[in-house]
Amino acid sequence: MRPGGLDRRAFVAASLALAGCGPVARGQSPQALPPLKSVAPFPVGTAVQAAQLDDPAFAALVVRQVSQLTPEWELKMEYVAQPDGGYRFDAPDKIAAFASAHGQRLFGHTLVWYAQKPDVFVALEGPAFRQAFAAYIAAVVGRYRGRAVGWDVVNEAVAEDGAGWRTSLWSERLGDFEHMRLAFELAHQADPDATLFLNDYNLETNPLKRATFMALAERLLKSGAPLGGLGTQTHVAADIKPGAIKAALEDLASLGLKVRVSEMDVSLARAPELPSPSVDLLGQQGRAYAEAAYVFAKLPAARRADFTFWGLKDSQSWLRRENGADAPLLFDDDGAPKPAASAWEDAVRA
Ligand code: G3I
Fold first, then answer.
1. In this structure, are residues 307 and 262 in contact, taking their beta carbons and an 8 Å threshold?
2. Which of 72, 74, 185, 263 is catalytic?
3. Which residue, 7, 37, 69, 107, has fewest beta-carbon neighbours within 10 Å?
4. Chain segment 124-159, per-residue pLDDT in tens
5. CATH number of the domain at 8-349, please?
6. Domain map of the chain by residue range?
7. C-alpha span between 116 and 44 (Å, rounded)
8. Ligand 1 centre and the CA of 258: distance in Å?
9. Does any ligand 1 atom lie closer than 6 A to the CB of residue 265?
10. Across the strands, what pairs with 261?
11. What is the spatial distance between Cα 149 and Cα 129, in angstroms, rounded to a whole number?
């Protein structure tokens, strides 16, 4: 078996692509590469922001490449929850309208996240808090009923080191486990047809975190929570150990729920530990994308929810705020496909 457990065909396909022998060398036109969604037997998505869709060239790239959209931040409490207790939906409505106009699916991200605790909730306690929590989930999920195919109901519940769960406003007010069980129950009541996910990160690089994540999923199932799937964000660095992504995806799929790669990007800047300065960073990046693509495509069809990138163009990546030179995505600042895009496509087809 090749490094990372990829079989020879996939490894050769990815290597050829990265050597520029694939259909696209760096910087060629988007038309030179078949659309990502056209080569995948599963939905392919990207995170977007409403204002980005006003750029005709980017809108065309989104329509050509993907079949599913996730609001990058405008369907989170930080955008939707207003200080007066009301809600703001103009931006997610715009993304939802764009998706339906172009026959694309919408994915809801995210309902309950430790990182978001609007003052309007902090000010409440007891029954009033629970009522506001229930009203928020009902209003947000209900608004996109029949349009959102799924939701990240609880995001990043597991502690950074993997030993237990995070505490949050939500856990403090409603209970460590109960707040999560309740969120799934409320989301299901608001849209019984949406698939409801538990989502987290570093599941590839922290086996303890992955084990705690999976144990939480099993506890939710045992409690009767309508958990339908597991999301692994897959924000990784180019120096990720070959095989780590494969191990995580196969482990997560073993629970028998749907699995989604929910936010993939492969940072170059966060990969200082590459074996030697001469290592081809773009090659390492393509290899990581290829491993995820190959293993995800080989999962049973019933387990594959979608494969979502956390953006399409490098210039729009959240990672650019950390390092202005990072280039973590499949398309460069001009929207041209990079070698990793070919590597991903060749590995999906391998
Ligand atoms: O666009 C507004 C701008 O008009 C305003 O002036 C400025 C200051 O308030 O805010 C800008 O919005 C920011 C938005 O990103 C767009 O850049 C928000 O403040 C900022 O909070 C938001 O950050 C997002 C972050 O989640 C928090 O929601 C990132 O874009 C987004 O990539 C990141 O995504 C997370 C996933 O949800 C969960 N997994 C990790 C991932 C990366 O951190």
1. no
2. 263
3. 7
4. 999 999 999 999 999 999 999 999 999 999 999 999
5. 3.20.20.80
6. 8-349
7. 27
8. 27
9. no
10. 232, 307
11. 28
